[in-house]
Write the structure tokens for this entry.
Amino acid sequence: MLIEDGSLPRIYDSYVKNAAFVDQVEPSALKGRDLFLGVCDAGSSHRWPEIVITQRYEDASGTFHPGFLVVPETSILFIGAGERLLGYNVERREKVFEDRTDYGFWGWTRHEDYILMAAELEFGVWRKTGEKLWSAFVEPPWSFNVSGETVELDIMGQLKTFSLETGAVALTNVS
């Protein structure tokens, strides 16, 4: 992967011209930072990225940074930047989802068949195939801990346990 955060590469037009798939998400937005992602086929002698994805996102004064997660067995690429969440099937060269989160994205984490998304005000769960299962509102300070098929959210000292698959509350404790 080729990643450039803050500006587009000087040879951006050549990357776009030589790519098999290009997705330019809100390229003309007035505010924000440019994010460039080029995905290269590891088995190809072709040196240009096969896939080019660009977007402009707001970074809340440098507080939030883009994050990426690739699931090799499903070819799904998860991208988070600012308030935008994107998913692509890099093998089929297609976008599989676009979603938003309030205020700012923190990061992706994988737990077995689930992809967990942490943001300033949201915790979300996707399948490794790119299908969003559920999300929950959270408020800082918050954290999460995964155990087996459940996730425990600690939201401002209040513990809640959810099923990873359904988001159903499994147990509520107050500390």
User: Anything to note?
Assistant: Residues 2-174 form a domain with the Lipocalin fold (CATH 2.40.128.630). The CA atoms of residues 52 and 83 lie 20 Å apart.
